[in-house]
Design a protein that fits this description.
Layout: E1 2-3, H1 16-20, E2 26-30, E3 36-40, H2 50-54, E4 71-76, H3 80-85, H4 91-101, E5 105-111, E6 117-122, H5 125-129, H6 144-153, E7 158-162, H7 164-174, E8 181-186, H8 194-208, E9 212-219, E10 228-233, E11 237-241, H9 246-252, E12 275-279, H10 283-286, E13 297-301, H11 304-313, E14 318-322, H12 342-351, H13 354-361, H14 366-382, H15 384-393
Parallel strand pairs: 5-7, 7-8, 8-12
Antiparallel strand pairs: 1-3, 2-3, 4-13, 4-14, 5-6, 9-10, 10-11, 12-13
The protein binds flavin-adenine dinucleotide (FAD).
């Protein structure tokens, strides 16, 4: 067995190589951080190099910063109950409703019965509802690209949703355009380690002597801007907001992201999909009427197919045309910076007691506490935050 990748920062784990291998010689194996990487069985490999050619993770060059024909929208689902279960403004539900109503199949990220994050398919709204909500863990795609190809070849329409690198992996794997395929990515500033999530979930279960039954990584019980991790156990409820929950702090401190996320080639306005969904940060300034802190989606329509789909759902949702000057989205400007403490965190985590290390690093320093708990909320309320971020990235 040999590794397919030369450097972990150059492998985003999209599984295009695994899916394309004609000899099934590639498997995805977990490293010490719990991320999946492709390894080749040299016995059955015929050195055809299909796996090398299919890899999407190579820097692309663009002439302009912002593509000229990209359309921008603010979107909000009309039902409060849907907004509550969605991370942003529920654009995913609006778009997937349309695809399902046309007889199509939706692919997206769900929890399995062990609360690991995997990609799955939905042929109806009940199955689709499980895809709602961001899961802050890298999802396991398995061999779903092969299944998607079969679904497309059978003449069914498909909506694929996932991170930009997963979408690009699928695109490269399929090799040709399918008129029935809609690609939809989410803004993604990095995917956390599945191992840390599993260990953290186990810690919560041990602390409460109870079993997890539902997880919401972006509970809006404390507002959209100040969302919380809410874990419902059979007899208890754990809820802590993003400045207090250790998992959230590790995530936002960039200690537990996949190494390739820090060299993400998709951290720009040039999307590889038909539609891109994100939080609409800056809505309080650009369209106050839309903002009641229950969440608003930023939707980028990147292709004609994406724009046609927006036209088709226009009357089913609240939607407003917008522009690139109206929102801010740091991950369209540059990849997330790696933490200077990442190496030491992982050394301690692997070699010493896991939970102690997780709790030690999953705490804000006094300076971070003042910035995150006091300064940022005040700046956000006044609208100055949008201004500062925009100036910073100019
Ligand atoms: C790891 C991660 C990082 C993110 N980073 C940012 C960011 O930097 N800026 C920002 O504005 N928004 C970020 N988001 C949130 C994302 O923008 C919202 O999911 C998106 O706006 C859709 O929200 P919605 O209200 O339309 O629908 P929702 O119902 O919240 O949409 C859920 C959609 O997200 C997909 N999804 C959920 N979890 C995963 C996962 N682990 N891997 C792949 N796909 C997943 C589902 O398949 C579904 O299509 C991130 C989400 C994730 C999972």
């Amino acid at each position: 067995m040999i590794n397919l990748y030369a450097n972990k920062k150059k492998c985003c784990g999209c599984t295009a190589c695994l899916n394309i291998c004609p000899n099934n010689s590639i498997t995805m194996e977990k490293d010490k951080e719990g991320f999946l990487y492709p390894v080749i069985d040299t016995e059955s490999c015929t050195s055809c190099e299909a796996c090398v050619r299919v890899c999407p993770f190579h820097k692309k060059e663009y002439k302009e910063k912002i593509p000229k024909d990209q359309a921008v929208y603010a979107m909000r689902h009309t039902e409060k109950s849907v907004l509550k279960k969605s991370t942003s403004g529920g654009a995913f539900t609006v778009i997937s409703d349309y695809v399902l109503e046309q007889g199509g199949i939706v692919y997206g990220a769900v929890f399995n019965d062990r609360f690991e994050v995997v990609h799955n398919k939905a042929a109806d709204k009940k199955q689709r509802d499980k895809m709602r909500g961001s899961k802050y863990v890298q999802s396991d795609l398995g061999t779903i690209f092969k299944e998607i190809k079969n679904t497309l070849e059978s003449g069914k329409n498909v909506l694929f949703t996932g991170t930009p690198c997963q979408n690009d992996g699928l695109k490269n794997y399929l090799k040709k355009e399918y008129s029935g395929l809609i690609l939809c990515d989410i803004a993604c500033h990095g995917v956390p380690s599945p191992k840390i999530w599993t260990d953290y979930k186990t810690y919560l279960e041990e602390m409460y002597h109870d079993k997890v039954k539902e997880v919401n990584f972006r509970s809006k019980d404390t507002g959209w801007r100040n969302s919380s991790l809410k874990v419902e156990l059979t007899k208890n409820i754990y809820i802590k907001n993003m400045q207090e929950d250790p998992f959230y702090i590790l995530f936002f401190s960039h200690l537990i992201l996949r190494p390739s996320c820090h060299e993400c080639i998709y951290a720009n306005y040039h999307r590889v999909t038909d539609l891109t969904l994100a939080d609409y940060w800056g809505i309080e300034k650009s369209n106050r009427a839309f903002d009641d802190d229950n969440g608003v989606s930023l939707v980028l329509a990147n292709t004609k197919k994406g724009k046609d789909l927006i036209k088709a759902v226009k009357n089913k949702t609240e939607i407003a045309e917008s522009s690139h000057d109206d929102f801010y989205q740091p991950i369209f400007e540059a990849p997330s910076k790696i933490s200077s403490k990442r190496k030491i965190f992982w050394e301690e985590y692997i070699n010493k007691g896991k939970i102690e290390v997780l709790l030690k690093y999953g705490r804000l320093t006094p300076v971070q506490w003042v910035i995150k708990k006091i300064a940022v909320p005040v700046l956000k309320k006044t609208g100055l935050y949008t201004f500062i971020i925009k100036v910073y990235f100019k």
